Amino acid sequence: MLLKKRNLTYLFLLPTLFFFILAACSKDDGTPNNPPPDDTTDDTTDDGPLGSFTGELLWVKTFGGSDIDQATDIIEANDGNYIIVGSTYSTDGELSGIKTAPDSDYWVVKLSKDGTILWNKVYGGAEDELATGITKTSDGGYVISGYSRSDNCFPGSNGGFHDYWLLKIDSNGNEMWCQNFGYPGSDQANAVIETKEGELFVTGYFDVSASEGEGNEDRSINGTTHGVGEYWGIKMDAQGAFFWKRYFGGSNNDRSYDVIQTADSGFLMIGSSESADFDITDSKGSYDFWVVKVSATGVKEWTKSYGGVEIDVAYGITATADGNYLIAGDTRSLDQDVSQNNGNADMWLIKISPNGNLIWEKNFGGSQFDSAKDIIPINDGNFLITGSSRSNNLDVSLNKGENDAWFIIVDDSGEMLFEKSLGGSSLDFSEAALHTSDGSVIIVGNTESNNGDIPLNKGIKDLLVYKIK
Q1: Residue 134 burial (CB < 10 Å; 0-12/13-18/19+)?
Q2: Which of 105, 226, 238, 443 has the fewest CB atoms inside 10 Å of its own CB, making it the most exposed?
């Protein structure tokens, strides 16, 4: 393992159309097989910059069957075990006896602290469903976000092609309710959160050109219809009935990947924008990190773009102790807001104020493609960023194959303290991370490898999960 005081840093990005395909792939994580801790470093003690975190790998697991299986999010259950959400095409392996059709379904796996499956269930209809996120609810259950082509809630409930599909399950995985939101185009929910009021908020991508302007309930669109894709935020009660729906964007592709509730009960929706009109007033180039601040009632309060002339995509956001926000993604730029780029693409981390002012920015990576998918606070005021890397130089100490799952730890000023690559000789991605109540970290994603850190591959692509401390 490697401790570093950062050179410059990086975050990740995605290209125009390929950027959406890569986004689906990169929701995955991998883990190695218990490498010995590095006894030559003393910075991993309680007195060091990482506090009690050592980066030691405790275990790595793969789950799935002979087809495509992947994880996109993870949360801690009330009993201290772990709930992983993802999608599966398989009908064998861990899916034997619970799935018979070869279409894609939501897949929820409950794991013990040592990585043993306690239960796993699939949800969906006759067409494809792809799960993207999960939130724990106040009653001990869970709400899953994603998108579906099926009539899952009642006959005729699908609005056409992909709809937002919100599924509520109890603590044992039993279905409680579901909601479809969508129109004739591809509408894809990417993240859901429970608000501090016990309500729900979901964000994602909305094909407003196919809806012909619908999807903006209670808001006048002044006779103008935005184009292609928009951020689409929906605020709901605890049963999934909506209070309001709002879309934001311009005439090109604008996609939201994450959301956080703010201190005033409003929301920051983050992602990327390709547009330079309508709601986008400060475009920097091709795709930018784009942040939309809305009030608790759905009123747009401000928007901000961050980046350079190339493609910059934001995937994760977290609050900081000083009341500001960190946003992680990737960048191909080297101008305007981006002060350095190490290669093809870097992880890019920005800190913004509650009003959207850019406080600082850092990039991390090597000479190849490196990107971030999630950022979470961990011990001692530090933050863990997880994603993937193709590099083996500069900020990246090792590459084990085509693409590795990669995570870094930064302090509250963005200085890199630690980094680690995990994977085998093929494609390995991490998508989301969880800081557990016992102080360890669980990272999830997907893998196509069957060597190196990956103990077993059961098919085309497996769900990947690993635990570090």
Answers
A1: buried
A2: 238
Distance, in Å, from the CA atom of 384 to the CA atom of 136, rounded to the nearest integer, reads 21
CB atoms within 10 A of CB 450: 15
For the beta sheet containing 2-3, the strands, ordered from the edge strand earlier in sequence to the opposite edge, are: 2-3, 416-422, 404-410, 383-389, 370-377
Q: How far apart are CA 386 and CA 374, in angstroms?
A: 5
Q: What DSSP element (H or E) covers 211?
A: helix 208-211
The whole domain housing 443 covers 2-468
Cβ–Cβ under 8 Å, residues 307 and 334: no
Contact 55, 468 (CB under 8 A): yes
| Alpha carbons 108 and 119: distance in angstroms, whole number | 8
Q: Tell whether the torsion through CA atoms of 340, 344, 349 and 354 is positive or negative.
A: positive
pLDDT of 308: 98
Q: Among candidates 384, 353, 371, which has minimal Cα distance to 468?
A: 384
Query: Which pLDDT value is given to residue 48?
Result: 64
Query: Do 308 and 338 form a contact (C-beta atoms < 8 A)?
Result: yes
Q: How many CB atoms lie within 10 A of CB 158?
A: 20
Q: How far apart are CA 189 and CA 205, in angstroms?
A: 6
148, 165 Cβ separation under 8 angstroms: yes
H-helix or E-strand spanning residue 19: helix 18-25
CA distance between the termini of the chain: 12
| Each residue's pLDDT tens digit, 32-44 | 333 333 333 333 3
Q: What is the mean pLDDT of residues 1-9?
A: 36
Beta pairing partners, 345:
369
DSSP H helical ranges for 233-272: none
Q: Is the torsion defined by CA of 372, 227, 233, 321 positive or negative? A: positive
8 Å CB contact between 416 and 364: yes
Query: How many distinct structural domains can be found in the chain?
Result: 1
Instruction: Measure Cα distances from 21 to 14, 15, 24, 231 in Å.
Output: 9, 9, 5, 18
Q: How far apart are CA 122 and CA 234, in angstroms?
A: 25
**Other CB atoms within 10 A of residue 17 CB:** 9
CA 169 – CA 141 distance, rounded (Å) = 6
User: Would you call 18 helix, strand, or coil by DSSP?
Assistant: helix
Can you give the CATH number for the domain in which 254 is found?
2.130.10.10
Beta bridge partners of 82: 76, 111
Q: Coil, strand, or helix at residue 310?
A: coil
Contact 6, 415 (CB under 8 A): yes
* pTM of the predicted structure, to 2 decimals: 0.89
Give the residue among 28, 20, 120, 21 at the shortest CA–CA distance from 386.
28
